């Protein structure tokens, strides 16, 4: 079996690691896989960067003006099509096709005519909206009727001038629903329910949870507290790729005012500007793609807190419990789906007081957290993709 994956990044971030883990699972079964990606660099001859950094920046620039993210990078997408044909896969597996690196018209016109089965894992809601990746926080349901006058025009993928959400919605619906043989996968039951209400709802929709590598994410000896003179503190950890508003940085700031001096908050993924504005009881660390550093941080923490206001099935929660650290999360999207009462607590989204109470009262055993994480071991989860691939090929549809 040969599978060609497409994602915005490769080997980094949650989606980039998922794509690589699926590739490794395929190769462990003596199958073949290539990954095409849009930005960054991943050193693997079977992983192909689609476009140059200059073209990527041009796509960002024009999208910020026209609100046409996903409608540039035409030449790069034509080269991608050539690469797919050359590899001649049995299945094409899409992940995040947004991210300023593809022309969806070129890609989906090709997929429509190519005739090979397509599996599309949705890591957010962008595929069935006219603009945004999430809409629950602003309580918008225009994605059900056609979008237009987008209330989140400046949210990712941000546009500072035009609002093209109505036209983009119409074009996405036309392009995406024209693929004759496509299956949708969602990492969470929450997103599964939304997809079935969208214009993608006529496709088969499956839920396969994200998985992680338990040989990497597990409890380790950590000297982090000693290095930073925090041995007498209870360490609260938060991790995000980018601490934008929907990730809840403002809620951590509010939380820091509710907790006494026994606690220290450590946030990973902040910009230098954000770090400079932190209060004394919050320690900021810039983004790291060093997985070993993350594991040491997870292991050092007494509790992992996820203040996300919009999310799908965040792997950071699984990484934390795999490292023996209980999780307190908002009841956002699928963020609480991986937790049980032995490894975490779910509180109402935006209720910082409930967040503080849960942190102060949490008393869960590391071994119970680790045990729950076994359900999300990557080979267990990504072998479900192998089964899906085979079922699609065997059914001929």
Task: Count the DSSP helices.
Answer: 14
Give me the Rg, rounded.
21 Å
CATH class of the largest domain: Alpha Beta
CATH topology-level fold name of the largest domain:
Rossmann fold
Task: State the oligomer.
Answer: single chain
Total count of domains: 2
Give the N-terminus to C-terminus distance in angstroms: 16 Å
Beta-strand content: 5-15%
CATH superfamily of the largest domain: Glycogen Phosphorylase B
Report on the architecture of this protein:
The chain has a 7-stranded parallel β-sheet, sandwiched between helices. The chain is of the alpha/beta class and 397 residues long. Strand 9 (263-268), helix 9 (272-276) and strand 10 form a beta-alpha-beta unit. The chain is built from 14 helices and 13 strands. The protein has 2 domains: 2-211 and 377-395, Rossmann fold, CATH 3.40.50; 224-376, 3-Layer(aba) Sandwich (Rossmann fold), CATH 3.40.50.
Structural topology:
Layout: E1 2-7, H1 13-28, E2 32-37, E3 47-49, H2 53-66, H3 74-87, E4 91-94, H4 104-114, E5 118-121, H5 165-176, E6 182-186, H6 189-197, E7 205-207, H7 224-227, E8 234-239, H8 249-258, E9 263-268, H9 272-276, E10 282-285, H10 291-300, E11 303-306, H11 315-322, E12 327-330, E13 344-347, H12 352-361, H13 366-373, H14 378-395
Parallel strand pairs: 1-2, 1-4, 2-3, 4-5, 5-6, 6-7, 8-9, 8-11, 9-10, 11-12, 12-13
Helix pairs in contact: 1-14, 3-4, 4-5, 8-12, 11-13
């Amino acid at each position: 079996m040969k599978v060609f994956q497409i994602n915005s990044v490769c080997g980094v971030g949650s989606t980039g690691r998922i794509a690589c883990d699926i590739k490794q699972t395929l190769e462990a079964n003596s199958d073949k896989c290539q990954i095409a990606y849009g930005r960054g660099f991943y050193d693997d001859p079977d992983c192909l960067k689609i476009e140059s950094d200059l073209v990527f920046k041009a796509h960002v620039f024009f999208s910020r003006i026209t609100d046409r993210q996903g409608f540039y990078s035409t030449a790069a997408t034509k080269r991608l099509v050539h690469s797919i044909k050359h590899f001649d896969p049995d299945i094409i597996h899409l992940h995040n096709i947004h991210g300023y690196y593809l022309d969806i018209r070129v890609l989906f016109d090709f997929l429509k005519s190519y005739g090979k089965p397509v599996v599309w894992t949705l890591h957010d809601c962008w595929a069935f909206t006219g603009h945004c990746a999430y809409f629950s926080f602003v309580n918008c349901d225009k994605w059900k009727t056609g979008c237009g006058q987008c209330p989140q025009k400046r949210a990712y993928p941000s546009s500072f001038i035009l609002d093209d959400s109505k036209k983009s919605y119409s074009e996405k619906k036309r392009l995406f629903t024209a693929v004759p043989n496509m299956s949708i996968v969602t990492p969470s039951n929450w997103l599964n329910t939304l997809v079935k209400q969208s214009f993608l709802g006529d496709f088969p929709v499956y839920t396969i949870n994200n998985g992680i590598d338990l040989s990497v994410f597990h409890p380790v000896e950590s000297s982090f507290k000693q290095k930073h003179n925090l041995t007498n503190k209870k360490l609260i950890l938060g991790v995000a790729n980018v601490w934008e508003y929907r990730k809840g940085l403002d809620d951590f700031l509010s939380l820091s005012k509710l907790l006494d001096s026994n606690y220290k908050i450590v946030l990973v993924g902040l910009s230098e500007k954000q770090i400079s504005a932190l209060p004394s009881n919050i320690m900021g660390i810039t983004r790291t793609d060093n997985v070993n550093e993350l594991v040491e941080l997870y292991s050092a923490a007494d509790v992992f807190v996820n203040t996300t206001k919009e999310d799908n099935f965040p792997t950071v929660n699984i990484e934390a419990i795999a490292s023996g650290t209980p999780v307190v999360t908002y009841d956002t999207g699928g963020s609480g789906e991986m937790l049980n009462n032995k490894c975490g607590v779910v509180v109402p989204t935006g209720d910082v007081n409930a967040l503080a109470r849960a942190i102060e009262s949490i008393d869960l055993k590391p071994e119970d957290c680790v045990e729950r994480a076994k359900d999300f071991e990557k080979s267990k989860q990504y072998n479900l993709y192998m089964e899906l691939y085979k079922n699609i090929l065997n059914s001929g549809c």
